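ARCHIVE CARD
Drawer: 12
Card no.: 0347
Subject: one protein chain, sequence and derived structure
Cross-reference: see card 0346
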Amino acid sequence: MFRNFDEIVGAAKKSGSSRICIVFPEDRDILRTVFDGMSQGLIEQLLIGSRRKIEQLAQREDFSLEGIPILDEGDPKNASEKSVKMVRRGILRP
């Protein structure tokens, strides 16, 4: 049983990072959460959405996208389908 959030993060770090996909990460809070998880070594992410919008948001919020793959997909349905296919192929965790 965990007693606090730090214990949860510590346990997650011990289990290693997970490769995850964020579909349409075009919101400041979503990108902040992604970067926080990455900086703590909890996740390796793949972003699917409008490259232009993601890059504009990252620049506005002073987030570095260095080393973060982005699949440029402007259609939400297509972006979702791509992420599901990657999970089915074992590229990403569900």
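Annotation on reverse: The chain has four helices and three strands. Residues 17-88 form a domain with the Rossmann fold fold (CATH 3.40.50.10950).
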